């Protein structure tokens, strides 16, 4: 996701300062590059560069630029790595039209080809740049009014967008359009704002107008007109008064970024699923023919690779192994040109992981990475990249990026299953149908378990330690659940394969000792049931993450979290972790800790 802002005002001021101030409030939405467009003395001034906002305004003196109308953008790269040329705003050939955009234009390649054939020249690798040239083409070559040219251009777009356009062809207007990506208007007596999110202007006004999908807006310094993009009917929508305090607004009203990001998971998974990245099939094909397959990652990202390791063994019938990044040395002698290494990393900057893949590449391995940050270091060592499209994750504890990493592992696994004949095309299609439902399943899981998570957290918060146990592919889920609890509530929790707990760890169990079981109705179900009974016999308080309507286990455990049916045998490592994220979050809050900034931790560990 990116942050976009527009300001139009009656009086001329140093609008450069205003637009930067508003963009700084949106830095949590994207921060790999910054840009502004300002109309000053009938000239369109563009200032932009790669880097965080403070780095860019150090280099470029934007604040003193005066004017009455400006748009700005903080970028979270999706198409094209972070760079000055890829930063927004993007302009038309004649330099008179500037566009900022948040979203993904799915048909941009086709539009770009057609516009190039008409003589337009492009300077960036972004999808967004087609918008400025499209408007120019309709305005200059089809002699439409500028407003009509903007509308016609937007109607050509397929995908998601929140767009702001300014031009010296219409120097008293900001034209905007919204579909799927957020866009709101803020207004006070001096100026009108338009932005991706309320925080951009909340310290200037609490009068807000929410825009809906398929709406086109024409903003003047004294008002705004909203139209339905399909019918072009004008819509009347009065402002409402938002009650958030400024610091709450960046969290969309949630008390912490971590809870906001847990709740963002349906949307971030939908962003991943919708992208249908071609690199997924390429990664599966390279894994399929490789002799040795190693996943490499750290922390939560490492746990996500256990799904990939499991699926390669199951579908490819080859020994594959997930390696903790800092221990990559241990398998270096097994790496050659017949080896595939799959680094998984949210930041793409984890030094342990980078070092491992550098050595693997030197020894001829193919590097097929799964990464969130476009253009990050790991992607630059990679032969193929699958992007998470999860947007910036501000909470130090990984949540939405963990689910995105895990779904990417499942995505590759499905292609591998088809390639290896583990299932036929019909079975593949059926799996794909369920795969596409995962965003909805996660949403239901959050809705159905948040109250229970708070209840269990009240009890768990008084504990000093606990176990997280599972079997099969969900040992990964136990690992991640325990890590979440450890890293934000500081309760010492260990995860084990449930069968392993008898070989020592069970000695720790005493009355009311917390033991969390991940117990989907898969092939491990009966064995997990007996493990639960073993723990109950020793006085443990057991918590089950179970399939809804599973009364057998519900009656065995002290508390249960319910997962929608149909996701026990396949994709279970996605919904079954969600209650554990909520449990860790509410336990930390109950213990008086800040989940967003856990002690001793950094968001990205760029040292060894
Ligand atoms: C998990 O909550 C932590 N933030 C940490 O374990 C993290 O997953 C690990 O440091 C790997 O980071 P990366 O995904 O950016 O490589």
TrEMBL record:
Keywords in alphabetical order: Aminotransferase, Glutamine amidotransferase, Repeat, Transferase
Organism: Candidatus Heimdallarchaeum endolithica
UniProt function note: Catalyzes the first step in hexosamine metabolism, converting fructose-6P into glucosamine-6P using glutamine as a nitrogen source.
Broad EC category: transferase
Annotated ranges, domain SIS: 283-424, 456-598
Protein's name in the database: Glutamine--fructose-6-phosphate aminotransferase [isomerizing]
Keyword ATP-binding: no
One Gene Ontology MF term: glutamine-fructose-6-phosphate transaminase (isomerizing) activity
Reaction it catalyzes: D-fructose 6-phosphate + L-glutamine = D-glucosamine 6-phosphate + L-glutamate
InterPro entries: GATase_2_dom, GFAT, GFAT_N, GlmS/AgaS_SIS, GlmS/FrlB_SIS, Ntn_hydrolases_N, SIS_dom, SIS_dom_sf
GO annotation (BP), single: protein N-linked glycosylation
């Amino acid at each position: 996701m990116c942050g976009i802002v527009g300001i139009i005002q009656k009086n001329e001021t140093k609008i450069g300062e205003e637009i930067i101030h508003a963009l700084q409030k949106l830095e949590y939405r994207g921060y790999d590059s910054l840009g502004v467009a300002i109309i000053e003395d009938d000239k369109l001034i563009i200032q932009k560069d790669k880097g965080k906002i403070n780095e860019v305004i150090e280099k470029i003196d934007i604040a003193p630029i005066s004017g009455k109308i400006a748009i700005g953008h903080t970028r979270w790269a999706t198409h094209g790595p972070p760079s000055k040329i890829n930063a927004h705003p993007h302009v038309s050939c004649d330099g008179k039209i500037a566009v900022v955009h948040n979203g993904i234009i799915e048909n941009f390649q086709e539009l770009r080809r057609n516009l190039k054939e008409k003589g337009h020249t492009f300077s960036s690798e972004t999808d967004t740049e087609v918008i400025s040239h499209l408007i120019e083409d309709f305005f200059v070559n089809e002699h439409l009014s500028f407003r009509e040219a903007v509308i016609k251009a937007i109607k050509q777009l397929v995908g998601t967008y929140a767009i702001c356009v300014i031009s010296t062809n219409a120097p008293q207007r900001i034209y905007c359009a919204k579909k799927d990506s957020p866009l709101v208007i803020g207004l006070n007596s001096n100026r009108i704002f338009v932005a991706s999110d309320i925080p951009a202007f909340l310290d200037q006004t609490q009068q807000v107008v929410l825009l809906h999908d398929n709406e086109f807006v024409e903003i003047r310094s004294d008002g705004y007109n909203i139209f339905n993009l399909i019918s072009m009917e004008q819509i009347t929508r009065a402002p409402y008064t938002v009650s958030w305090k400024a610091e709450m607004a960046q969290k969309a009203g949630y008390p912490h970024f971590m809870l906001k990001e847990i709740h963002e998971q349906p949307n971030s998974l939908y962003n991943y699923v919708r992208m249908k990245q071609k690199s997924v099939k390429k990664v599966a094909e390279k894994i399929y023919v490789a002799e040795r397959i190693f996943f490499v990652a750290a922390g939560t990202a490492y746990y996500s690779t256990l799904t990939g390791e499991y699926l390669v063994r199951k579908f490819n019938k080859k020994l594959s192994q997930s390696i903790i990044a800092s221990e990559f040395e241990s398998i270096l002698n097994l790496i050659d040109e017949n080896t595939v290494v799959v680094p998984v990393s949210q930041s793409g900057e984890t030094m342990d992981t980078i070092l491992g893949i550098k050595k693997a590449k030197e020894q001829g391995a193919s590097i097929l990475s799964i990464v969130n940050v476009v253009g990050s270091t790991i992607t630059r060592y990679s032969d193929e990249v699958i992007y998470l499209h999860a947007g910036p994750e501000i909470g130090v504890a990984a949540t939405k990026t963990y689910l995105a990493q895990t779904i990417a592992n499942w995505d590759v696994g499905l292609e591998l299953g088809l390639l290896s004949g583990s299932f036929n095309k019909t079975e593949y299609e059926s799996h794909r149908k369920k795969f596409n439902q995962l965003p909805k399943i996660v949403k239901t899981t959050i809705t159905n378990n948040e109250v229970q998570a708070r209840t269990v957290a009240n009890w768990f918060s008084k504990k000093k330690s606990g176990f997280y146990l599972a079997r099969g592919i969900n040992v990964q889920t136990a690992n991640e659940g325990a890590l979440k609890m450890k890293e934000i509530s500081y309760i010492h929790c260990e995860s084990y394969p449930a069968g392993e707990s008898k070989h020592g760890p069970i000695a720790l169990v005493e009355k009311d000792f917390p033991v969390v079981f991940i117990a989907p109705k898969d092939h491990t179900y009966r064995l997990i049931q007996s493990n639960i009974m073993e723990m109950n016999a020793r006085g443990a308080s057991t918590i089950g993450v179970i399939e809804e309507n599973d009364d057998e286990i519900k009656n065995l455990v002290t508390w249960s979290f319910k997962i929608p049916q149909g996701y026990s045998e396949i994709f279970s490592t996605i919904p079954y972790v969600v209650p554990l994220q909520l449990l860790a979050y509410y336990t930390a809050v109950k213990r008086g800790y800040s989940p967003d900034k856990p002690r001793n931790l950094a968001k990205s560990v760029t040292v060894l």
